[in-house]
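hey m, so remember when u said the tokens were messed up on ur end? i reran from scratch. heres the input so u can diff it against urs
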Amino acid sequence: MELKAVMTPGRPWAITHPLRAFFVTWIGQLLSLLGSRLSGFALGLAVYQESGSITQFAIYSSLVLLPNLLLSPFAGALADRWDRRRVMLLSDVGAGVNSLIVLLLVTWHDAAFWRSHPWLIYPPVILGAAFTTLRWPAYYAACTLLVPRQHLGRANALIDLAVGVAQVAAPVLAVALLARIGLGGILFIDLLSFLVSTGALLLVRFPAPVRRETDPARRDSLWEEMGLGWKFIRDRPGLMGLTAFTGVFNFVISMVPTLITPLVLSFADVSTLGLVQTTAGVGMLVGAVVASVWSGPRHLVASVLCAHLLSALALLVGCLRPSVPLIAVASSVFLFSIPPIQSRAWAIWQRKVAPELQGRVFAVRRMVTLAASPVASLLAGWLADRVFEPWLAVGGALAGTVGKLLGTGPGRGIAFLMGMLGVVCLGNVLAAWFNPRVRNLEDELSEPAPS
């Protein structure tokens, strides 16, 4: 049965043109992401300041991530069963209601109450993260139906641009707004952002893929569907190899931010660290803009590998000297490479996975991505403190060898670790290139019929 797509029936005022629907949705999600990042940063800062406990802050950070890991398969199955626009609506409405609950909790209780009861904020944090988890499989799967295949890389880059804008702008805005309107005001802004994104989704209509007669979603239970995404990837060696490549890539990009802060502070002050982070953030934004306007090489796999090679070189060069300009430029180049890698990799998945299966398959891919983050962050700190810093301390085990190239003293072990991550990136590129299933993925794995 040929796979076609049908437009979900809508009212006369609804935006049904696919590209227009994508851009309206993108604007709404951009504002929603910015509001969520604002409130998330401000709330985490408040938890730390009021409790005075790094443990409480670490628990808060983990609870934000945990629902994404546990619920991604369910979110993917739901995105394939339901209208993807409605799944995104459920995500925004649920997260918005949760923001209202947090706003009321913050308004009703003073700082002294939160110092003695910090755990009361955890249930709404978990609930909000659970609703947010529903968004991503549906968003990326809907993108395939709204954007022509030749422009999927650019559309994914726009999504990355929205994430980058939120990541760069939110901390700066949150610090400024906390002094003026307080945590309650920021939570109210977050609530307004959800209203805007919900309004955008109410205005648009997404095409809905017509299921094949053999589509498992017609007969399997929800639990069986949740395992289908993994089975789909496992049965295709090229996609399995690409998943492994992505897992290593995300492991590295999760370790680097953890290391940059102590590396810079080992020889510079906090204001210099802010300058380095801002420069790096600008690099990521420029990378997203470039990826959204330039289609890149015809072969997407080659484009992904070339961008990852650039990130490896940035890490190798950035570790050489304790120099602010050198580290700032290297950080900027490193983050510049991330949007092209992510957007082109997503385009491969969107082209090779049938639209009616994308929610489940994309959820597994996202779960692999997220699983690397907490492990990488914890391992980065342990390796830096217990292994690499002692090695390159004055008189350390590697002071007479590696120390002659990188120097010795505070921060040089961290620099050596970052250099080793550059070597890992090089190995990841070579492993993918010399794996014929990955290198020839675009030619060997057929694409589903267009929607």
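this time it looks ok to me. Strands lie at 5-7, 207-209. if urs says something different then somethings off w ur setup not the seq
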